[in-house]
Amino acid sequence: MKPITIKDIRLHVVSLPYVEPLRTSFGVEPAKSALLVEVETTSGIIGWGEGVTEVRPGYGYETIATGLHITDEFLIPSLVGKTIEKATEVPALLRSVRGNNFAKAGVEAAIWDALARANDMRLADYFASFLPDGHRSRNRATVGVSIGIQPSVAETTAIIKKRLDQGYRRIKLKIKRGWDVELVRGVRATFPDISLMLDANSDYTLADADHLAQLDAFNLLMIEQPLAYYDIYEHGLLQKQIKTPICLDESVKSASDLLLALQVDATRILNLKPARVGGYSESLKIYRICVENHLPLWIGGMLETGVGRAANVAFASLPGVTLPCDISATERYFNPDITEPPFVLGPESTLAVPDGYGIGVEVQRDRLEEAEARWRENYPYRQ
Ligand code: OSB
Ligand code: MG
Which ligand 1 atom sits nearest the alpha carbon of residue 224? Predict the structure, then answer.
């Protein structure tokens, strides 16, 4: 493997209108805002990465503004001028900064892309090179679709029908207190057999255990993150009171969190969002823990632009990712995205890993500039 030397790291804040916003238990954003990281090497290779900072500290505590601050002032100076042989060296270079996983994940992802491109490799194959034989990329990711909170059951079933007709084979519904059992009962009346799961985004407390146990009647694949975003222990207590498998999302921010969650039976399935755990190096550690413990694993999404989506598709193509992922086709999110080619839903609810090197998609400079201008118009405090 050829090493890279980092010449420059540039940040781009973009705003992209959603085709359809996603309402969760903590709210809705009208447009996608993203902090994109562009790494340039001394040999002129460009790598791209995307953390998942949002405008508000809703899903995680980081925001676009904290991402800019941490990346600009602390992460970039730790990396510029450094020669990197393996992308897994990056976390050690960023060790002096605690937390701020989304910001770290953005720069780490750009370095993964640059190293793969510098070595004429697809990112999926570069990921696999850190795993034992038998973990080669399957060249496609099996995916599902996430459906936001709708005004009624009828509107929810109409969207589910549209998604099933498009070829998605696993449906995730966002729920919140007061929008759960009756929703699922209504949906199951129309679709008794579809592969169905729920995501509560931390809206409940342990006092809701009896209420949540009513969901056991509906043959759900899992319920994602019912309790507090920082909690592991009480999810283990809740799992004793409900049969539906619990899948942690927000609470698992490192391999160490996952080991604790396994110890207290707080997660029977894992939603891994590489940015949430600080990047793909930590994600590979978590991947190995899941394989060793036979823990079903899937890759979650944060409505990423094509930059983040492409890297997640590459990771999701690894065989230890055993359940459908929250990575849908480009047309479900943006029209157009800032990268080409788009991801198109293929046979058996899959997205193909692109053939190109690195993340395999190319940022379109004209669209990037347009999306940066849109951010500046909407968020003038950052000008
Ligand atoms: O909890 O998985 C979540 C989007 C924003 C914030 C949190 C979540 C989500 C999703 C998006 O569910 C799924 C996707 O990217 O398709
Ligand atoms: Mg979730």
Answer: 1
Q: Is 243 a catalytic residue?
A: no
Name the residue at shortest CA distance from atom 5 of ligand 1: 302
Residue pLDDT, tens place only, 217-260 = 999 999 999 999 999 999 999 999 999 999 999 999 999 999 99
Phi-psi region for residue 299, left (φ > 0), alpha (ψ -120 to 50) or beta? Answer: beta
Query: How far apart are the CA of 270 and the centre of ligand 1, in A?
Result: 14
Give me ligand 2 centre to Cα 199, in Å.
Answer: 6
Q: Which two tokens stand for residue 295?
A: 């823990």
> Counting atoms of ligand 1 from 1, which one is nearest the CA of 145?
16
CA dist 165 and 167 (Å) reads 5
Range 356-363 average pLDDT: 98
**Closest alpha carbon to 197 in 221, 177, 178, 174:** 221
The order of strands in the sheet holding 223-224 is 145-147, 170-174, 195-199, 223-224, 246-248, 269-272, 297-299
Concerning whether 240 is annotated as a catalytic residue, the answer is no
What is the tens place of the pLDDT at every residue in 82-92?
Answer: 999 999 999 99
The SS3 of residue 150 is: coil
Closest CA to 140 of 302, 325, 265: 325
State yes or no: cis peptide before 57, omega within 30 of 0. no
328 lines ligand 1 (CB under 6 A): yes
Alpha carbon nearest to ligand 1 atom 13, residue: 301
Indicate which residue's Cα is closest to atom 14 of ligand 1. 301
